[in-house]
TrEMBL record:
InterPro entries: Dual_SerThr-Tyr_Kinase (IPR051302), Kinase-like_dom_sf (IPR011009), Prot_kinase_dom (IPR000719), Ser-Thr/Tyr_kinase_cat_dom (IPR001245). Residues 106-135 are annotated as: Disordered. Keywords: Cytoplasm, Kinase, Serine/threonine-protein kinase, Transferase. It holds the Pfam family PK_Tyr_Ser-Thr. It is found in: Cytoplasm. This is Protein kinase domain-containing protein. It comes from Mythimna separata. Residues 1-111 form the Protein kinase domain. PANTHER family: DUAL SERINE/THREONINE AND TYROSINE PROTEIN KINASE, DUAL SERINE_THREONINE AND TYROSINE PROTEIN KINASE. Residues 106-119 have a biased composition (Basic and acidic residues). The keyword Lipid metabolism does not apply. Residues 125-135 have a biased composition (Acidic residues). One of its GO terms (biological process) is cellular response to fibroblast growth factor stimulus.
Length: 135
């Protein structure tokens, strides 16, 4: 991606471009943050890497472009993300509902001891390259 887009705040809700701000903006931002937490790294979503400038990127975001689902995202986590990213702000999840879903996801994670299909640990195994500590 060109240097002009690096650092573009992709976590901003599309309606902010029009100056509209309400609680739905925070829900959208949470969904983006949750994507990064679940991704386990700070790399820009690959869906956003192909743009030469921020105008191209924002045009696509306004038309519904969102970060991609990574293979290790659970269905429950992906559902939370998508519910936060609805194009229409009034259709986004309420943070109280998100909290309840996150509590269920957390409880399930604490009790899930089933190995993944690849035989590995149920926890996502990050490489050193993906570490959030490399800032």
């Amino acid at each position: 991606m060109s240097g002009s887009v690096v650092g573009t705040p992709v976590q901003m809700a599309p309606e902010l471009l029009a100056g509209d701000y309400d609680a739905a903006v925070d829900v959208y931002a949470f969904g983006i943050l949750f994507w990064y937490v679940c991704a386990g790294n700070i790399k820009l979503p690959s869906a956003f890497e192909t743009f030469q400038n921020k105008e191209q990127l924002w045009s696509k975001v306004k038309r519904g472009l969102r970060p991609e689902r990574l293979p290790h995202f659970s269905d429950d986590c992906w559902e939370v993300m998508e519910s936060c990213w609805a194009s229409e702000p009034s259709q986004r999840a309420l943070l109280g509902d998100v909290q309840a879903k996150l509590e269920r996801i957390h409880e399930h994670a604490l009790t899930d001891t089933t190995p993944h299909e690849d035989g590995g640990n149920p926890d996502y195994e990050m490489s050193d390259e993906d570490s959030l500590d490399k800032l």
